[in-house]
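Agenda item 2: zinc ion complex prediction
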Amino acid sequence: MPIYEYKCSKCSRLFSVLQKIGMSEKDTVCPDCGSNNVKKLLSAFSCSAAEGGAFMPSASADACGGGGGGGG
Ligand SMILES: [Zn+2]
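Presented output:
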């Protein structure tokens, strides 16, 4: 579920609400004062960056299987 940022127009409080897609902001009330006079903010911080990285083990496949010559 997406998280929407809201701002209360009454107490100017910022809060995030976990809403389903299709829900209206009219169903959202301020958790601080309980007023439904809230405004939806644009979520501009929609970026997922994975910090760190996995170390790839350099597997040196050197075993090609050379032709064994064992002549007698
Ligand atoms: Zn409020």
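Discussion summary: The radius of gyration is 29 Å.
Owner for follow-up: CH.
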